[in-house]
What we know:
Structural class: alpha+beta
CATH architecture of the largest domain: 3-Layer(aba) Sandwich
Oligomer: single chain
Strand order of the largest sheet: 3-4-5-12-6-11-10-9-8-7
Helix content: 25-40%
Shape: globular
Number of strands: 12
Bound molecules: coenzyme A
Amino acid sequence: xxxxxxxxxxxxxxxxxxxxxxxxxxxxxxxxxxxxxxxxxxxxxxxxxxxxxxxxxxxxxxxxxxxxxxxxxxxxxxxxxxxxxxxxxxxxxxxxxxxxxxxxxxxxxxxxxxxxxxxxxxxxxxxxxxxxxxxxxxxxxxxxxxxxxxxxxxxxxxxxxxxxxxxxxxxxxxxxxxxxxxxxxxxxxxxxxxxxxxxxxxxxxxxxxxxxxxxxxxxxxxxxxxxxxxxxxxxxxxxxxxxxxxxxxxxxxxxxxxxx
Length: 260
Ligand SMILES: CC(C)(COP(=O)(O)OP(=O)(O)OC[C@H]1O[C@@H](n2cnc3c(N)ncnc32)[C@H](O)[C@@H]1OP(=O)(O)O)[C@@H](O)C(=O)NCCC(=O)NCCS
């Protein structure tokens, strides 16, 4: 695989472009997966001009790739936890309230509800602050917020998710959303949040119970630093099933290369 940059062409790349992140960051972002050839990756990185960003997931610090990637300048951005709620668990009763209603927008109706996109994007940017992008000191909060904003808004462009479940007040304010990916045997909470002033009022519980389907497990990924989300998922019967580390690499500026 070859990669074009402003300054040269790299013929052998181990990584692949991440066009979604490149759009949000405003410069080239790439990703790679294990197993990978560390020497080829090292060559690729030395030929990658700044600004550039790459991310790779590894199972844990004992994986032989971990120390090799650290030596190349990759740093742990966040420890990720995958949770699963087995199919067949009883659905908890929803809290009855007039403060908000739960509405499910299927992908087929996404374009008709495009007026919700701005509110949902803003909620995502303001509330999803435990993400790996927010945890990385080399990524600005503005960029990290833009990643989450675009991610959520992509639903309305038909580019991400099969359902958008929203909590909406009688006067039309969106106070929470659950962006859902749906597969044949499982469903995934892709992004979920509740507005600050509506927390602990059953919004997220209602957003998640609205996605449950008979015969399907429900999955979600979260971060080890997100204790509120951990308590929330466990309260609904989710259990942790796997962990991984997400590593970030930022191309060093020329001055940093000269003075490591
Ligand atoms: C996690 C989050 C979505 C929960 O939303 P919420 O609407 O406040 O949650 P609910 O009111 O439906 O809570 C249901 C239950 O979850 C548990 N829970 C929720 N938030 C909790 C917290 N901060 N601490 C402890 N338990 C919590 C409680 O058992 C709660 O029931 P209770 O209020 O009757 O005790 C919300 O805190 C949030 O938006 N956080 C920022 C975004 C985020 O981290 N999203 C998840 C990314 S993986």
